Amino acid sequence: MELNLLHKTELWINNIKLEGANLTRVAEVVAEVMNIPREKVLVVDVRENHITLDILQQELQAEYVFGKKKEILNKLRDIPGVNIFDNTDIHSDGILGMIGLDEDEAKEVLMRTKTMSSNIKNRIARRVIVFPTGFEVKRGMIEDTNTPLIANILKDKGYQVNQGEILDDDEILIAGKIRQAVDNGYGLVITTGGVGAEDKDKTVEGILRVDPSAAVPYIVKFKKGTGRHEKEGVRIGVGQVGQTLIVALPGPNDEVKIGIEVIMDALDKGLSKEAIAYNLAEALRDKLRSKMHHHHH
């Protein structure tokens, strides 16, 4: 389970005496026990009876922190010139202070924390927010039929669905609203509309601002610059920030329905964002082909 140090990164070892000790080895021992790269631990201050270390890695695994005081002190004792006494202690102001737990206590806290963390993760995973996009929807020119559709399907599957505000076609605004949803603990953020080839379509660009490595395959390609097509085609987008999955679906209601079915299937299988994007693009391409087929007949 990952812990964030939240900038409380100093670790103090009190009642320790050094006589010609190799400080690099001291830092190495702490890094080894905490299972982080050697260069992420620095000895930043040495006094007569205490030393201060700085941990330069923000994210640590709980099992290498909780209750590790004894192991660190035992390994430091083996370094020539490092004197450890019965009252030698390790402490820190932040989450690193958990190093000082005794080993049995550490196991119990770890189990409790893991359960709590998994409960929080499950809660987040079940929270969904849907943002319709586009000036036609915002000005009430067309009805938003997508959000009720998504809400009904997801609520039936036990998700808690909130309706986000209708967003203008503005990639900075869209990115800001998505970031806010991530910070507010939503596990799934869905946008509808704004994925087309016109210059006003900005949803995929908004997702790429939040997750530059988002998967953004084309559903259909056009010749750039023909008609109103400023871009090469229609794309969908699937990004991820931490635990939050972000999906940009097209606007047409029948395509949203297909998209939601693909997303539900993917979440059940625990697929990656790349696999979800691939499955979405395939399903929507099939839909478009059948639409065009009907159109020509």
From TrEMBL:
Gene3D superfamilies to which the protein is assigned, alphabetical: MoaB/Mog-like domain
Chain ranges of the MoaB/Mog domain: 129-270
Coiled coil: none
Domain of life of the organism encoding this protein: Bacteria
Pfam families on file: MoCF_biosynth
InterPro entries linked to this entry: CinA (IPR050101), MoaB/Mog-like_dom_sf (IPR036425), MoaB/Mog_dom (IPR001453)
Protein name, per record: Molybdenum cofactor synthesis domain-containing protein
